[in-house]
Amino acid sequence: MKINILKFFGSLALLFAFVISSVTANAGTKDDVTKKGSLNCGVSQGVPGFSNADASGKWTGIDVDMCRAVAAAVFGDANKVKYQPLSAKDRFEVLKSGQIDMLARNTTWTLSRDAGLALEFVGTNFYDGQGFIVRKAAKINSAKKLNNVKVCVETGTTTELNLRDYFKANNLKYEAVAFTKADEAVAAYDAGRCDVYTTDKSGLAAQRTKMKNPAEHTVLPETISKEPLGPVVRGDDQNWKDIASWSLYVMIEAEELGVSSKNIDSMKSTDNPNIKRLLGLEGDTGKSLGLAPEWAYNIIKQVGNYGEVYEKNVGANTPIGLARSGSPNQLWTKGGILYAPPVR
Amino acid sequence: MLRIEEIKNSVKKNLRLGNLIPQLLLLFTFVFIIYYFTSNAQTNMASRNISSGFDFLKTNSGFDVQFSLIDYDGSYSFGRAYLVGLLNTLLVSSFGIVFATILGFLVGVARLSNNFLLSKLSQLYVEILRNLPLILQIFFWYFVVLRNLPSTENSFIFLDFLIVNVQGAYFPKFIFTNFNAIFYGLVCAILAIFLARYYSKKLIYERGKSLPVFKISILCLILFTTIFALIGNTDLQLKRAELIQNFGIFNYVGGVKLVPEFLALLFALSLYTSTFIAENVRAGILSVGKGQKEASKSLGFNNSQSLKLIIIPQALRVIIPPTTNQYLNLLKNSSLAAGIGYPDLASVFAGTALSQTGKAIEIIFIVMLTYLSISLIISAFLNWYNHKIAFVEK
Question: What is the architecture of the domain spanning A29-127+228-334?
Answer without folding.
Answer: 3-Layer(aba) Sandwich (3.40)
